[in-house]
Amino acid sequence: MRITVLNGPNLNLLGTREPDQYGTATLAEVESLVRVEADHLGIELEWRQSNHEGALIDAIHELPGRADALLLNAAGYTHTSVAIRDALAAVRIPFVEVHLSNVFAREEFRHRSLMADLAIGVIAGFGPRSYLLGLRALHASRADV
Ligand code: CA2
């Protein structure tokens, strides 16, 4: 199974700022954690991050034929991007939406996701473990994808 992990804007700052909200692990450390689990599950993993909406959309367009499923943390774009939603709907890639923080325990504008209804499911609030849980969920859903 091939899974692409796509990380949105500002997640490159992980571990360097706002540790109370997002923890102390860097994005590279989260990637290492996820790679160990992916190896364990026999998943071929691609890891990407961009701060640019268009680049994220291009990455989604590239998924058919390249990945069986997507683990997506669209970060701030989760709550604003009709264009990313449209890209996900267009390629019809099965995906799980993940968030480090519990977005429902935060500001009201973070309670709404413009893509969650297209996802297999959403995992939020477990820090870097959200990614591990999301990976396992995609792996467990592989018969359906
Ligand atoms: O909890 C998550 O994973 C979020 O997707 C993170 C986004 C936020 O806009 C979403 O509401 C929830 C923010 C990512 C920014 O990451 C930073 C990391 C360190 C310092 C500053 C920002």
The main sheet orders its strands as: 2-1-3-4-5
**How is the biggest beta sheet arranged?**
5 strands, parallel
CATH topology: Rossmann fold
Compute the number of strand runs: 5
Distance between the termini: 10 Å
Number of domains: 1
Radius of gyration (CA) equals 14 Å
Give the percentage of residues in beta strands. 15-25%
Mean of the pLDDT scores? 96
What would you say the CATH architecture is? Answer: 3-Layer(aba) Sandwich
Under CATH at level 1, the class stands as Alpha Beta
Ligand types = ligand CA2
Low-confidence stretches: none
Number of helices, where a helix is a run of at least 4 consecutive DSSP H or I residues: 5
| SSE ordering | EHHEHEHEEH
Spell out the CATH superfamily.
Dehydroquinase, class II
The residue fraction in helices comes out at 25-40%
Q: Quick one: overall form?
A: globular
Structural class: alpha/beta
Summarize the structure.
With 145 residues, the protein is an alpha/beta fold. It is built from five helices and five strands.
